[in-house]
Design a protein that fits this description.
By secondary structure, the protein is α/β, with parallel strands linked by helices. The protein contains nine helices and seven strands.
Length: about 250
C-alpha cells in the first residue's frame, strides 16, 4: 500500500464506520468456532495494528506485514511483536498459531495460493483461519489501485483458493450487504470522475455519519453470529479449519 494510505488507515481505524463494522464482523465469524484458552494468534498483514490491539485480548498475538511503514505504525501503538515480512515466507515456526487472521490481506498478495499455503504451515493442527476480502471485480476502482490490490473475489473463487491450499471452509458469507446498493453506483461513478483518481474511499464519509453507517454492519454481524449467511455484499468473510479435520460445509 501507499504510505499515505497507511497514515490514513492509522488515523481512521478507531472511528471510521468501515473499520469498526469490520471488527464486529470478525468477532461474529470468531463466534462460529471454539478457540482454545489463550490462543496464540497471528495477524497476517497486520497493517497499522488496530486488529492486533482488538483481538490480542484473546491471547498472545504476533503481527507481520511487508511494509516498514506498517511496522512503524504498529510500534507507535505500543505493539512489540510485529515483524516485517511477506505472507509468502513467514518468519515463524511451523505449527505455532491457533488462530490466524488475514483480514483484507489476500487481495494485496500476487501469489495468494502460496500465501494460504504458508499460513497453513504456521498453523497448529487444530487452528482456525479467518479471512475477509473485497468482493466482485466489477467494483474495481482507484480505491483498489491505491491500496495495491491484485484482485477482488467472489465467495466461490475464495473457496477454491482455500481448498487448494489445504484449508476447509466451515462458514462463509458475504457482508457489507445492506450498503451494496449504495456502494455499487458510487464505485461505478468514481470510474468516470477525475476527482477520485489516486484516492481511497476512506475520505468519502463525513465524520458525523460514521456511527450511522456502522449500524448496518453491526446488524449483519448479529446475523452471522447466529449462523446466518448473506447472499451478496461488498466483502466476503470466511472461517476455515485445516482440511484434514473434515468439517467443511
Amino acid at each position: 500500500m501507499e504510505r499515505l494510505a497507511y497514515a490514513e488507515m492509522y488515523e481512521q481505524e478507531d472511528v471510521h464506520w468501515w473499520f469498526r463494522g469490520r471488527r464486529a464482523i470478525i468477532w461474529a465469524l470468531l463466534n462460529r468456532i471454539q478457540l482454545p484458552p489463550a490462543p496464540h494468534i497471528l495477524d497476517a498483514g497486520c497493517g497499522t495494528g488496530r486488529n492486533l490491539v482488538e483481538f490480542g485480548a484473546l491471547g498472545p498475538a504476533a503481527g507481520v506485514d511487508p511494509s516498514a511503514d506498517a511496522v512503524a505504525f504498529c510500534q507507535a501503538r505500543g505493539l512489540s511483536d510485529v515483524r516485517r515480512a511477506g505472507l509468502e515466507m513467514l518468519p515463524f515456526d511451523t505449527g505455532r498459531f491457533d488462530l490466524v487472521l488475514a483480514c483484507d490481506v489476500l487481495e494485496h498478495v500476487e501469489d495468494d495460493a502460496r500465501a494460504l499455503q504458508e499460513l497453513r504451515r504456521v498453523a497448529a493442527p487444530d487452528a482456525t483461519l479467518v479471512l475477509t476480502v473485497p468482493a466482485y471485480q466489477w467494483l474495481w476502482t482507484d480505491h483498489d489501485v491505491q491500496l495495491r490490490h491484485f484482485r477482488r473475489y467472489t465467495l466461490p473463487s475464495l473457496r477454491r483458493r482455500v481448498l487448494g491450499a489445504g484449508w476447509q471452509p466451515v462458514h462463509a458469507t458475504y457482508f457489507n450487504s445492506i450498503m451494496l446498493p449504495l456502494v455499487a453506483p458510487a464505485r461505478l461513478a468514481s470510474r468516470l470522475s477525475s476527482r477520485r483518481r489516486g484516492r481511497t474511499d476512506l475520505d468519502r464519509t463525513p465524520a458525523f455519519l460514521n456511527r450511522i453507517l456502522e449500524q448496518p454492519l453491526r446488524l449483519e454481524a448479529s446475523i452471522i453470529r447466529r449462523g446466518g449467511r448473506l447472499p451478496a455484499g461488498v466483502s466476503v468473510g470466511m472461517v476455515c479449519r485445516l482440511a484434514s479435520m473434515g468439517t467443511g460445509k
